[in-house]
Amino acid sequence: MGIGLALLIGVHRDDAEEDARKLADRVVGMRIFNDADGKINLALKAVEGQIMAVSNFTVYGDASQRRPSFGESAGFEKGKELFDKFVEEVRNLGVTVHTGEFGSEMQVAICNEGPVTLIVDTR
């Protein structure tokens, strides 16, 4: 894939289309790549980066007990709708997005090359 972002996307049960739009705008605009001086100062488009978006309802898992709860995660239909909306919005912003099949069990290998790992929430 080259330079870009690997995103594990969880949809909260209270999320709406506006959250998908807001998240897309925020992710594409985040200045988290190094510029020529080595400063974290460039956004995704400035480095011609791409996104690998992986749907992952477990992101909103509550692990405060031995048996995790996923009650904060959106159901399948809403999760798929908002994940697809996020992908559409990112593409509308001019960024290439790679995805798998929503709801399927996938094996994903992620090579984290930089110092930045973030949780981005629209709230």
Question: What does the model show?
Answer:
The chain has two helices and five strands; from the N terminus they run E-H-E-E-E-H-E. With 123 residues, the chain is α/β, with parallel strands linked by helices. The protein has one domain: D-tyrosyl-tRNA(Tyr) deacylase (D-tyrosyl-trna(Tyr) Deacylase, Chain: A), CATH 3.50.80.10. The strands form two sheets. The protein has a three-stranded parallel β-sheet, covered by helices on one side. Strands 2-3 form a two-stranded antiparallel sheet. Helix 1 crosses helix 2.
Task: Tell me the layout of helices and strands.
Elements: E1 4-9, H1 17-29, E2 33-34, E3 40-42, E4 50-55, H2 76-92, E5 97-99
Parallel strand pairs: 1-4, 4-5
Antiparallel strand pairs: 2-3
- What is the CA-CA span between the terminal residues? 30 Å
SSE succession: EHEEEHE
- Strand coverage percent: 15-25%
Strands of the biggest beta sheet: in what spatial order? 1-4-5
Any idea of the CATH class? Alpha Beta
Number of helices: 2
What Rg, in angstroms, do the CA atoms define?
Answer: 15 Å
**In the CATH hierarchy, what is the architecture at level 2?**
3-Layer(bba) Sandwich
State the CATH superfamily name. D-tyrosyl-tRNA(Tyr) deacylase
Per the CATH scheme, the topology name is D-tyrosyl-trna(Tyr) Deacylase, Chain: A
The helix content is: 10-25%
